[in-house]
Amino acid sequence: MDSSDSTSQPKKTKCPQCGRLTVYSTENKFRPFCSERCKLIDLGAWADGSYKIPVSPSSSDPLSSPEDIYDEEDPGTQS
Q1: Cβ-based neighbour number of residue 22 at 10 Å
Q2: Buried residues in 43-60 as b, exposed as e (16+ CB within 10 A)
Q3: Distance between CA 20 and CA 52 in Å, rounded?
Q4: Neighbours of 2 (CB within 10 A)
Q5: What are the tens digits of pLDDT across the range 15-74?
Q6: CA 58, CA 11: separation in Å to the nearest integer?
Q7: Taking Cα atoms as reference points, which of 2, 32, 37 lies closest to residue 15?
Q8: Cβ-Cβ contacts under 8 Å for 78 (sequence gap 6 or more)
């Protein structure tokens, strides 16, 4: 490792929420975000399910069998 690495500029990256250029280092307590606001917006998106991966049931999926599908009128009974 070169001694000039310790005196180099800190790495800058785009905030994943707003795209603003921000310092990616231990001094930035919100990293990889630029601010607490962007960090909380992202957390809220995770909490409300905005980042879910869409999937479609397949015949090889054991949870997509008819025994696992509940009756719409009475969720406590199986059809």
Answers
A1: 21
A2: eeeeeeeeeeeeeeeeee
A3: 25
A4: 7
A5: 999 999 999 999 999 999 999 999 999 999 999 989 888 887 766 656 655 555 555 555
A6: 44
A7: 32
A8: 67, 68, 69, 70, 71
9 pLDDT higher than 90: no
Here the tokens at position 51 are: 């980042």
Q: Could you tell me the sign of the dihedral formed by the alpha carbons of 20, 25, 26, 31, in that order?
A: positive
* Alpha-carbon dihedral sign for residues 46, 47, 49, 52: positive
Residue of 24, 17, 22 whose CA lies nearest to 39: 17
CB atoms within 10 A of CB 13: 13
H or E, element range at 23:
strand 21-23
CB atoms within 10 A of CB 65: 10
